[in-house]
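User: Just a sanity check before I run the rest of the batch. Below are the structure tokens for the first item. I only need the designed sequence back.
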């Protein structure tokens, strides 16, 4: 099973930017949709963004309303790293961010299953802390 390792978190001022990376160890993400979730203290884990698997160069993405227009998910063609570019950060973005992979999620004109459901993901990283100071 591929291991997922997140890095890039840290302390950033409100309005600033940070890019998270999630790297595969063991084998690639090939064939897997990828997602980012986050969990703030005292809150449940919530969906942030997802990106489809594609054997070509076209990927489809999906975002939580709270981050749409500010965050961008992407993946490299080698299927080794998935990224989360976070801009215009707010204090409420403070959380531990997790990446996850799914071999269940498929896209055909639309997502065939919900990419926002943690239950659709079968592999998780250990998380990286992002703290936004106001």
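Assistant: Here's the designed sequence for the first item:
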């Amino acid at each position: 099973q591929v291991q997922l390792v997140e890095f890039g978190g840290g302390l950033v001022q409100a309005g600033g930017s940070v890019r998270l990376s999630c790297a595969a160890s063991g084998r690639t993400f090939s064939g897997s949709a990828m997602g980012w979730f986050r969990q703030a203290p005292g809150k449940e884990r919530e969906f942030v963004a997802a990106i489809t698997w594609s054997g070509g160069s076209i990927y489809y993405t999906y975002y939580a309303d709270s981050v749409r227009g500010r965050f961008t998910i992407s993946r490299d063609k080698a299927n080794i790293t998935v990224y989360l570019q976070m801009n215009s950060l707010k204090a409420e973005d403070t959380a531990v961010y997790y990446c996850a992979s799914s071999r269940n999620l498929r896209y055909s004109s639309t997502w065939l299953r919900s990419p926002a459901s943690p239950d659709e993901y079968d592999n998780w990283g250990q998380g990286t802390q992002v703290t936004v100071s106001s």
